[in-house]
Amino acid sequence: MAKHVGVKLPEDLIELLKSGKAVAVLATFSEKGLPHTTPLQCMYPKGQESILLTIHKDHQGYHNMVWQKKVMISFLAAGNVAYSILGRVGVVRAPSMVHPLMNVVRVDIIDIKSDRSVLTKVDSGVQWSYTSWEAEELLNGLFNELKEITKTM
After folding, report:
1. 108 phi and psi, to 5 degrees?
2. Where in the numbering of this chain does the Pyridoxamine 5'-phosphate oxidase N-terminal domain appear (predicted)?
3. Which residues share a beta bridge with 114?
4. Backbone angles phi, psi at 31, to 5 degrees
5. What is the rounded CA–CA span in Å between residue 134 and residue 138?
6. Residue 124: DSSP 8-state
C-alpha cells in the first residue's frame, strides 16, 4: 500500500542518488496522451526537494517532459528502497557542458509516496555496468556536472 512521504527526499533515496548507481524509470505522457517510460541512470539530489538529471535532447521522454512540465519517477533498489516521485520539470542547462546532445533538467518535488509493501521487500534493484571506457567517461562527466550545478544554483 502506498504511503504519502511528503515533499522532501528520504535519506535512503538521497544516498542512492549520491552513489551514482541509481536507476529510475521516468514516466511521461505525449501531447496525444500516450504513456512513455524512460530508464534514467544519471541523477543527483539538489537539496532535499529537487533532483537533477541528464537526458538526451532528442529523446521522447525529454520532449514530453518539456511539453507536459510534470513527471513521475519510480525508484526500486536494494535495502527496500521503493519510492515514486511526482515532480515539476524545468530545464537547467541545454546543452550540457559535458556533451552537446545531453540536457540537464531539474525535477522539483510535488509529492513523494513510499511504494514499500507489507508483503514483500525490495532486495535489489536494477544493476548496470559501463559498456566501454568512453561510456564511463561520459557518465562520470555528466554525474560530476550535476554535482557541480547543485553547488551553484
Report:
1. -85, 130
2. 20-101
3. 3, 83
4. -60, -25
5. 6
6. -
Domains of the chain listed by start with CATH number:
3-152 (2.30.110.10)
| DSSP 8-class letter at 29 | E
Tell me how many degrees the CA angle 142-147-150 measures, rounded to the nearest 5.
Answer: 125
**pTM: predicted TM-score of the whole model, two decimal places:** 0.92
| Cell numbers placing 18 | 549520491
Tens of pLDDT along 103-119? 999 999 999 999 999 89
Rounded distance between C-alpha atoms, residue 71 and residue 148, angstroms:
24
State the residue for C-alpha cell 541512470: 41
Helices (H), 20-132: 60-68
Q: How far is CA 134 from CA 44, 121, 130, 131, 140, in A?
A: 21, 35, 9, 8, 10
The two beta strands, 102-114 and 81-93, are antiparallel
Cβ within 8 Å of residue 19, ≥6 positions away = none
